[in-house]
Design goal:
Layout (H helix, E strand, L loop, with lengths): L10 H6 L8 E3 L8 H10 L5 E3 L8 H10 L5 E3 L8 H10 L5 E3 L8 H10 L5 E3 L7 H10 L4 E3 L1
Parallel strand pairs: 1-2, 2-3, 3-4, 4-5, 5-6
Helix pairs in contact: 2-3, 3-4, 4-5
């Protein structure tokens, strides 16, 4: 279900999404009004969700993503491009809670460091693809990642 770019979504709407408990994929990219309270309502009602895109949701913080990681253990794909408030703390939680994660995009999440990405790759053996464009990874660091994790496709 794609709701990308919809600026009129609110808590009432997210509560209504509970009717779709079997929903597997949800795109909420470019919904600037999305807040932690909305995400809380959303994830509690969609326990089967496997793909989530919250790219461009500038209001999302580590606290919101920590709740998401706790409540959506089956998540396989997560895109949080341009979420400028996301830090290494989120990356650490993703690694410890989302064991099924195979694809993640940190594109232009400038507060995420190379060290956090390395820890994530060590923690998640199912990870197949990581978008690192705009993440603080040096050229030497990227080369190390490619050497140590040849099964992971590094984008960016």
């Amino acid at each position: 279900l794609s709701l990308a770019g919809n600026t009129h979504l609110n808590a009432v709407f997210f509560a209504e999404l509970h009717r779709f408990r079997e929903l597997l994929a949800l795109n909420l990219s470019e919904c600037p009004q999305l807040q932690i309270a909305d995400l809380r309502i959303l994830v509690q009602g969609l326990p089967q969700l496997q793909e989530l895109n919250v790219s461009g949701c500038m209001c999302l913080t580590d606290a919101a993503m920590l709740e998401l990681a706790h409540d959506l253990p089956w998540l396989r794909s997560l895109s949080m491009e341009r979420c400028s408030e996301i830090t290494d703390r989120t990356v650490q939680e993703l690694g410890s809670r989302l064991s099924q994660l195979s694809r993640v995009s940190f594109k232009n999440c400038f507060r995420i460091t190379e060290k956090a990405v390395i820890r994530l790759l060590h923690t998640l053996p199912n990870l197949e693809e990581v978008d690192l464009e705009g993440v603080s990874v040096t050229l030497a660091g990227r080369q190390r990642l490619e050497r140590h994790f040849p099964h992971v496709r590094l984008l960016g």
